[in-house]
Amino acid sequence: MPRTIALALVLLTTWFVLPAPAQDAPPTPKPADPVADLIGEALRAWRGQKPQQAIELLQKAIGRIQDGMRKGMSALLPKAPEGWKAGDVESKSGNWGSGGSAVTWNQVGCTYTDERGDKVTVKMTNMPRLVDAQRRQLEVLKDPRVRKLMESKPGMEFDLIERDGWLALLTVQTGHSCQIAAHGKGTLVTVESNVPDRKRALLFFDALDLKSIDAVFGSAEDAQKGTGRRGE
């Protein structure tokens, strides 16, 4: 009997120290996606024959998307060079028109001030339909005859800059100011100096990561060209 009890104790002890049977790990919760949630609610409202509610939900989703775009654009503004101080980043967005002619735009900007009080303002505007049209107009300046005509204006200097797939027009107004207007894939970047010094404007323009701006904020049409597809 004592031997039987001892064997039972050994078996019980072995049972309690055995590892517990493997259990499936709980699924990792998906990160919150307010935009997707709003779009899902809008779809349910539409299917439930509540078109006005669907529109309001989609507008909220668009607002969140624009908020995210402006934050991303702000991160791509140039850092203040040595001897300059960056002001607060200002941002705004809006919509023009409706239906197929609707235009949505987002803009961020920052003004930089040097030790003498001179200022340079950099603005980034994402408005694919308008910016792409402006770029096509700017292509005309590649014609030497057009360039010669523009350069004949007294007190004005012009220079055409091509970098990383962007086309930019540098304008110097003698005794007044200097501006660079650069057109990418749906995004316009302007650099405005309150003194007619092209070196100051180029200091900020050269600090921009134009490739990243195109990669993140390129127009839908450019994305379709990249995949060999056109909009339906």
Residue ranges: pLDDT <50 for 5 or more in a row? 1-21, 223-232
Mean pLDDT: 81
So what's the CATH class of the largest domain?
Alpha Beta
Could you say which overall geometry the principal axes of the C-alpha atoms support?
elongated
CATH architecture descriptor text of the largest domain: 3-Layer(aba) Sandwich
Fraction of residues in helix = 40-55%
- Overall structural domain count: 2
Description:
With 232 residues, this protein is α+β, with helices and mostly antiparallel strands. It has two domains: 43 residues; 149 residues, Protein Transport Mog1p, Chain A. 42% of the residues lie in helices and 26% in strands. Strands 1, 2, 3, 4, 5, 6, 7 and 8 form an eight-stranded antiparallel beta sheet that branches. The longest helix has 25 residues. The N terminus and C terminus are likely disordered.
Descriptive labels:
232 residues, alpha+beta, Protein Transport Mog1p, Chain A, 8 strands, disordered C terminus
Q: Would you spell out the secondary-structure blueprint of this structure?
A:
Layout: H1 2-17, H2 34-47, H3 51-75, E1 84-86, E2 90-96, E3 103-114, E4 119-126, H4 128-138, H5 144-151, E5 156-163, E6 166-173, E7 177-183, E8 187-193, H6 198-205, H7 210-217, H8 220-226
Antiparallel strand pairs: 1-3, 2-3, 3-4, 4-8, 5-6, 6-7, 7-8
